[in-house]
Amino acid sequence: MTDGPMKIPINYAETSEILRNALKLTGSPVAVRFALTKEDIPPGIEEIDKTQRHCSMVNLARKEGKIFFATASKHECNGGAWALGLREITPTLKSGDFYYKLGKFNSAAACKRTIDQIPHLQSGETYATIYAPLEKTPFTPHVVIMVANPWAMLKLAQVSLFRLGGRVESSCAGIQSVCSDACALPYISGKPNFSLGCDGSRKFSGIADDEMVIGIPGEMIPEFTQSIGVIVGAAGSKK
Question: Which are the contacts of 91, defined by CB distance < 8 A and separation ≥ 6?
């Protein structure tokens, strides 16, 4: 594989159990990896058998425990495929017409300004995206995605500040939340990112109206696991 396992091994089954229990998650944290070549896909993992959106694929791992990969041809959403580096941006998305016609912006120009700032991987850089519930992942994740209620997100925000303090800085636009906000951006930046979700992900991937999304770089998962128990059990924490 292009990059192998982390130098300091992580017990992903134990990590998932800690996060699920502490945060009262209704599904699994989801491990996501960007395969740059066909050889980057671990043996035994099969490609998804039908075309779906990235956010729906995350839900298959989160709720049904599925492990699979998806090349560009299996990604239904052009915006998601572009954000994840699988395809070139479409002309209507680049111009702003796509979201403008959906009624999300007052003008195509306002939409284009937003699209121009959407975090995304270089087009054509990704051969496939790979998905697994964190507790069963057979690969080293680049990003771990969690869907949870605002209370759980509060605890995760506090965890992100536990060691060094500061302020939580997140980026979202109400569009392309699971693909760009919670996957591409944490991978590119090396920082966790909180997202409010988007209409598409809420419609197609089972994200409830009272849930949010976070993407955490795989390398940061041990820090979150080590701190979450302290944060949830703190004297000042609402149980």
Answer: none
